[in-house]
Every structure is written in structure tokens, then in C-alpha cells.
Amino acid sequence: MPASRGWSIRTRLTLWYTAALGVLLLIMGSATYAVLKRVTRADSDAYLTDTADAVAASLQLALAGVPPAFAQDSLAPRWAADRTLENHRFRDIGVAIFQARTSNADGPVLHLLAVDTTSSATRYFGGAAGWQIASTSAVRALALMDTDLVTLDPHRERVVSLPVSTRRGLYVVAVSQSLAARDVLFARVRETMWIGVPIALLLAMAGGLGLAAASLRPVDAMRAQAEQITASNLHERLPVPSTEDELSRLSRTFNALLDRVEDAFEQRRRFTADASHELRTPVAIVIGESELALSSDRSADQYRSALRIIHGEARRLASIVGDLFLLARRDGAEQAIAPVPLFLEELVGDCVDAIGGIARSKGLTLEFSPMSEVPYTGDDAMLRRVVMNLLDNAIKYTPAGGRVRVEAQPRPHEGAVVRVSDTGVGIPAEHQPRIFERFYRVQHTTDRSGLADASGAGLGLPIAAWIAQAHGGSLQLVRSDDSGSVFELTLPGRLA
């Protein structure tokens, strides 16, 4: 049954249920009716056959004990037939006895010897006892060689004929029973089915609608609650039925979805707030310096100093905007990776050379000794960004006299590992789970490390972690304590 547009689930479920029940009732009703007819017919035939056997046995006894007064061949059969019928009277069965007297081309001709005139058998076997020839239809219906079960239309009588062979010749015992009572029974059964099945289907449909409504009532409650959930009240959840069934699992799944949506909205809110905060400071500096420079005439050196400050903050703004753009591409699931064949140890070496001057200016030892070639296929610019970020953080948070070590080596099977370790101040344990969150920064004060607070937007590690994930790998903080930190970039054998 195709689902019609606009029909509710309750209606469709009820119609499907009713249709299935209707087919089941039709099959069961038809099978019951057929079995009832077969059993009734078999019982009726067995009853008629037993009656014919009893009458045949009585006829044989009667023929064997004919009195001398009726011993003539013309009188003995009729006397025996009458005597047999006197001993067998039935309220609902007709009995007739025939004698095969002569033969023609079609077989023996049956002459009616006696008939129970109180039964309906007289309609077929003659109206009065005597030497009468049975009707042609009856002769054709009666078999002389075996028991025959026939229906003589249009009166619908069930007839059993049984040949009886004696020393006085061949006889046929025929018993009949009207099918009128059985036809009435079957008619009532059919009438009951024609009336009862539709009533049962209507009741089932009404009950199905009620059950479907009760079963889907929690869905309506969930729908009503879901319609009221907006961005301002994402903390609300759908009611969970206590039935522990599909609806309760659906509610929990939808609530889990709301949890993720709420988390996404909260991250978006924090992201917007943090981005606004990060952008506000350089913008404020640019506005302040420019207004100060324009407020009065200044010397060339003063203008140059103001422009340097504005230029530095503009570069910082450009860096933050670039990072935000990368994160937006990540959130939009855009593929920003352009893989090319490269040697990872050369890439890391270039990064070490580029940042080596900063390390030396801080009095740090920067170590990198490539041991073997590390071929890899990845995005050159993106991987450089990851390595430069790790090196920049290591140099930034390592006091003078410390050491930063970089390693690049192939993995046992395929892929590569880049490890950056330092002897810096480390990351407090309570901050470590959140270092890959956007805009999250760990403040290191001079009281603890002798370092001034390092500037940064808190986007470097989140972007580096995303680049690693985009390559099918991962960026992990392996260890961080008072002796320093170790970050490990793991890359797979090939870029997915």
C-alpha cells in the first residue's frame, strides 16, 4: 500500500495493520471454510457408507431367509427388500433397493424393488414400491462395481450406491441424504464471514488508530518541545519516555544531537568573543597611534615610530585574520591540502635554519641532526607552518641557556614522526587538556619562569593540530613538566 501524501504516520500504520489483518482473516477464513466443508463432507460420506453397508448386510440376510410362500424368483427379491426396509428406518436418510434384471448395450437395467417413501430419495428412485425402472439420471449415477459418492443436481442429494452380489442375483443398495441442511450451514458461515470480517476490520482499525495515537503521543510531545528550542534556549532537552523502546532511544539520540549543537553554538560564541577580543587590541592601537599622529604636527622620527607601530599591529591583524580564515575553512570541511612529494628532513631543516637566528639571539641551543631521508607526500606550506609553530612555541617558552631539539624520522612501517622537545618552563597539568582549543593561552609570568608574557592569539596549536588531522595524522603533547615539553607530529604513510 503506497503511502499517500499528507497522511499521518498514525493513519499509514493503521491502514497497513488493517490491510495485513484483512489478508490474514481472508486466508484463515477461506482455509477454515474449506476445511469445514471437507470434514463435513467426509463425515457425511462415512455415515452414508456405513448405512449402506448395514442395509446391504440386512438384505443378504433377508434373501437367505425368504419364506417358502415367497420363494419364487419373482417374489423373493421384493419380499427381501421390503423386509430390509422395515428393519431400517431413518429420519434423514433415504434408502432404495434395486435389482439388476436384464442387460442392454449400456449395462444392466436396474428395477426398483423398494424405497423408503418417507425420505427424499423417492425424488430419484421412484414414488412407490414396485417393479419400476429407475430414472435415467439415477442409473447413470449409480455404479455397480464399487461405492460411488455422487451429487445429483439440482436438488443436491448425496447418494451412496453399493452393489450386493447374492445367489439370487445382483442388487444395488442406494442411500441418500439431502444437502439442504449443510448448504444452509455453509450459507450462514459465509454470511457470518461477510459480515464479521468487515466488522472485525473496522474494530481493528479503530483500535489500531487508538494504539497508534497512544504509541506516537510521545513523538508529538517531542515535536512540540523541539519546536520551542531555539538558539536562545539550547539547554532544553526533549522528554525521554521510560519505555526503553525505539522512542526513548530516539529521544536520547536527539538530545545527544542537541548537546552537540549546543557545544557548537557555545564554541562559536566563544570563538566570536575571543576573535573580537584579539582583533580589538591591534585595532585600538592602530586607531590610537593614527589619531595621536594626526592630532598635531610631529617630527619625521615620531611619524616613523607611529607608522612602525601601526605596521606591526597591521601585520598582527593580518596574521590573526589568516588564522581565522584557515579555521573557517576547517569548520566548513573544505579540503585545503595540496599534497606534493617532498623530503621531510629537508623541510624541517629549512624551518630550523629560518628560525635559528631567533634562537641564538635568546641564547638557546637549537639542535637538529637528520639521520636519514624521510620521503613523504604532503602539503609543503602547511607542514612548514606546523613545524614553525612548534619551534616558535619551544623558543618562546624556553629561558636563555636552554635547548630545543628537533627530530624527523621515518616510522617502522610507513609515514613519519617529527618530534620537538625543549627544556622550557613546561605547561601546567591543569592547562594541558585545553592547549589545542582556539584562543586558549597559558600565561607564563616572570614570577615563575623569568619570561615575560608571550604574545599570541592562541590559534597556533589548534591550526597545527588541524593540519595534522587533514593529513590523516595527529599532533600530541607527549610530555610537559618542569623539565620541558615534548610535542610529536605523527603522519601516516600516505595522504588520504
TrEMBL record:
Ribonucleoprotein listed as a keyword: no
GO cellular component labels: plasma membrane
Alphabetical keyword list: Kinase, Membrane, Phosphoprotein, Transferase, Transmembrane, Transmembrane helix, Two-component regulatory system
Family annotation (SUPFAM superfamilies): ATPase domain of HSP90 chaperone/DNA topoisomerase II/histidine kinase (SSF55874), HAMP domain-like (SSF158472), Homodimeric domain of signal transducing histidine kinase (SSF47384)
Catalytically driven reaction(s): ATP + protein L-histidine = ADP + protein N-phospho-L-histidine
Protein name, as recorded: histidine kinase
Compartment(s) where it occurs, according to its Swiss-Prot or TrEMBL record: Membrane
Pfam families in UniProt: HAMP, HATPase_c, HisKA
Highest rank taxon of the organism: Bacteria
